[in-house]
Amino acid sequence: xxxxxxxxxxxxxxxxxxxxxxxxxxxxxxxxxxxxxxxxxxxxxxxxxxxxxxxxxxxxxxxxxxxxxxxxxxxxxxxxxxxxxxxxxxxxxxxxxxxxxxxxxxxxxxxxxxxxxxxxxxxxxxxxxxxxxxxxxxxxxxxxxxxxxxxxxxxxxxxxxxxxxxxxxxxxxxxxxxxxxxxxxxxxxxxxxxxxxxxxxxxxxxxxxxxxxxxxxxxxxxxxxxxxxxxxxxxxxx
Length: 238
Prior knowledge:
alpha/beta; 6 strands
């Protein structure tokens, strides 16, 4: 199968994952090319008119992978601008995003939804997605699992109708084990986050001088990650 990986990568992290995906898909027997998006000049979140050095020619690809970082807790502006102007009707599409923060709900999920919404509005269906949390200590495992899942996805597409069922059946134990691992990881991270909320609530309540200060402290404990992010962005002048 001829696959095009369309990548926007500002720091090189997303491009690194795309290169590894290209290598593994090629070993699996696919013809894979990377098409890198290079916007002209600086691109800030919310900019309306994004210009590129060149637009990839994707008509000859049977399937596409869109890869982008998360910026400003959503899909990076250059990738969003590219998808809105490109024709991808009836293409088989997969996508993944990379993000700095360790929790997918801090922009990753929103970026994936944005890609799916744009693609589906143009007549394409996004059937496989992935999120790499770059600051997570499980990043390397996430990359390996993403690549393996994409190889399975494109392998199934390439099979005949009868072979497709056989592959799906053979992959069931692997997929079930991956789901169990994902549930364990999410449960652990959720527990850690819950404990940080409890700790923050205790801190704010201990330093309160009235009932209303205590109530405000509880509210601060619930949204303390947003307060931290706000302060960091303010210090960085973003």
